[in-house]
Amino acid sequence: MNITEYFENNVSFIYLDGRFDGNTSWKVEQHIRDRIGQSISKFVLNMEGVPFIASSGLRVVLAMTKELRQKHRCQRRSSDRFKSV
Amino acid sequence: MCPVHEFPADTKALASTSLLVADACEQLGFSEQLTGDILISVDELVTNTIMHGLKYDATKTFQFEVTSFEDQIEIVIREKGEAFDPAEVAIPDTLASLEDRPIGGLGIFFIRKLMDQFSYTVSNDGEKTFKMTKRKG
Hints:
- The structure holds two protein chains of two kinds.
- In chain A, 51% of the residues lie in helices and 26% in strands.
- Chain A is α+β, with helices and mostly antiparallel strands.
- Chain A has a three-stranded mixed beta sheet with strand order 1-2-3, with no helix packed on it.
- Chain B is globular.
- By secondary structure, chain B is α+β, with helices and mostly antiparallel strands.
- Chain B is built from three helices and five strands, in the order βααββαββ.
- In chain B, 30% of the residues are buried.
- In chain B, β2 (61-68) and β3 (72-79) form a beta hairpin.
- In chain B, strands 1-2-3-5-4 form a five-stranded antiparallel beta sheet, covered by helices on one side.
- The chains are: A alpha+beta, B alpha+beta.
- Chains A and B meet through α2 of A and α2 and α3 of B.
């Protein structure tokens, strides 16, 4: 699995090339987690180059999406609280 | 006669198990679609074995066997790791919204959906055998 990435307006565009299976999904997860740690919160995953996706690949997409939505909701909630103070 | 292959519980084994099955499918003349279905199922079962059964402990191994019949392929995995009964895995609601979806649980669902037969047995000495088959037509 090769991961190519570029940034535009603080959005990470990730191009995946190769099998997205139990042997490679951790690599994608680690990459996205690292970016989330660097405060990137918007991603576009291009899977044109993925000939095969297993449930472990789907798990990473689902887990990361849920995590980002959860973070977004928390941020929104805290900014709403701030406004009402 | 089919050789029994032994692999350590490392996801690197997925490349080898896929290759063994892809070769057998080609020799049997399975269509690209059927071969794809079988390869997804193999990936799921091997990943489950490594992840749930053997807990990524590469000092432990599993046996992998591919048998070609006239119009059918049979894939068997044997290991002595943690108890893991696929029958206990809940059927996922694939129409549920993203928020309501649990993470994981799709692997066994795929196998049941894509293969003709899928069975699980445990011997008295704790060896677990997972067997799945797919017919050509």
